[in-house]
Design goal:
The structure is a homodimer. Chain A is α/β, with parallel strands linked by helices. Chain A has 9 helices and 12 strands. The first copy, chain A, folds into 2 domains: about 160 residues, 3-Layer(aba) Sandwich (Molybdenum Cofactor Biosythetic Enzyme, Chain A), CATH 3.40.980; about 70 residues, Alpha-Beta Plaits (2-Layer Sandwich), CATH 3.30.70. Helix content of chain A is about 35%, strand content about 25%. In chain A, the strands form 3 sheets. A 6-stranded mixed beta sheet of chain A has the order 2-1-3-8-7-6, sandwiched between helices. A 4-stranded antiparallel beta sheet of chain A has the order 10-11-9-12, with helices on one face. Chains A and B meet through helix 1, helix 2, strand 2, helix 8 and strand 10 of A and helix 1, helix 2, strand 2, helix 8 and strand 10 of B.
Chain lengths: ~250, ~250
């Protein structure tokens, strides 16, 4: 069974183009490397109702949800109250996080920074391994929702510190490079796809490359089915194949 | 009134990290330049039910919806049937599009390419200005949903050819660069934000720059309110301001 995930990027600044998204981009690659099946990415505004509804739905549909942004001390940081609202719970100060904050800033800490210790009631803290920053300053997790900061360097660091808990079995894959337009071989491709329903086959025209016109990708949790689908395509598309990358038998 | 938009990127290949998203990235910037308020971006799989539900909801919530991908001739191209399903209509062959295809490929056109002329019944064709590629090969639009191809060079070209129909009034904006941590001035910032509810104020910590620690952005459709909010912040944050970019009075 695939372990599934969804990503919710929270931030007016991404939707308005003030900053380019870096966090979804990073996490898409990281989850692929961990063998996790990412099912949806949504970029949404700093709006409490939108955060509430979106995160709740993601939490019900996917094994893991990762949020980015909206967790600072200013008026536009809505993620914690949004998630609490979505699950019908309260926002509370987490004593262990408050302790981290007070140790970090010392006696001159501005009171506003206490917002950084706010969590939806019932949230857990997930520390990274000994020696990591996250060992001391853990990730806040509510049910299956991991709440990460929007600043890209912190987002990456916190995710990498806890990533091993998400490692799953990667799917076996193959790639075929075809020097013909999709329409020329679409019927043959469909026949092979229908004959091997447990193999996911994608067909991607590429206009920038010169040695091929379409990349076919195949993925499966069944090595035998994958090999059979590749063999089927090698035969059906022999006239146009320029390269095949497949697992060794 | 803001004109609003949503973007739906359809493609397993983006969620699995095989290809990086270029189209949302491009369109976020283009819509900002046109003064359109982008409210949501979702990246979803090649799944007919997911496409149906997502596009339908976007269509009801936003003035304009742009989809990317899933419009080729192969088995994994689900966008047209997905959108038709979402609105409870049928997929039909559009005679004008069929004519374009037959002229382009000539008598040797593979029959599979006829899928490129399929549209949800009732769709309109939106041509670009005279002389553009899109004048001949128009964009398919169903209700308020503009259906664009996933190949980035085609996506950009088709959008740019029809972009003038989306041009709206840009909001007035200002930026303040603050050399202090957010917690230090969060209370003053909140007071100014509450006093000027028609001004949207964002607060973004930046860790890479050296001359400031937080970027504040202000946006409004009311020039007077924008100027008043900037003046309020210039006074409240005077001790830490390193730069102010604002409209000339």
């Amino acid at each position: 069974m695939d372990r599934t995930a969804g990503i919710v990027i929270i931030g007016d600044e991404i939707l308005s183009g003030k900053f380019a998204d870096e966090n979804a981009q990073f996490l898409i690659g990281a989850l692929a490397g961990l063998g996790v099946a990412l099912r949806r990415v949504s970029i949404i505004p700093d709006d409490i109702e939108d955060i509430a509804g979106t995160v709740r739905r993601f939490s019900e549909r996917f094994d893991w949800v990762f949020t980015s942004g909206g967790v600072g001390p200013t008026h536009d940081d809505m993620t914690i109250p949004g998630i609490a609202h979505g699950f019908g719970t309260r926002v509370v100060l987490h004593p262990a996080l408050e302790k981290v904050l007070r140790e970090y800033w010392g006696p001159t800490m501005p009171e506003a920074n206490l917002r950084l210790a706010e969590v939806p009631e019932g949230a857990e803290l997930v520390p990274g391994p000994h020696g990591t920053t996250t060992a001391r300053w853990p990730v806040v997790c509510y049910r299956n929702v991991y709440i990460l900061p929007g600043v890209p360097v912190l987002f990456r660091q916190k995710f990498l510190d806890i990533q091993e808990r998400f490692r799953s079995t990667p799917m076996a894959s193959a790639r075929l490079y075809v020097n013909a337009d999709e329409g020329v071989f679409a019927d043959q491709l469909t026949a092979v796809a229908l004959a091997h329903p447990t193999v996911k086959i994608g067909s991607y025209p590429r206009f920038a490359e010169t040695a091929f016109r379409v990349l076919l990708t195949l993925e499966s949790r069944d090595d035998g089915q994958l090999a059979a689908a590749v063999a089927g395509l090698e035969q059906a598309l022999a006239a146009w194949l320029v390269r095949v990358d497949k697992p060794a038998p």
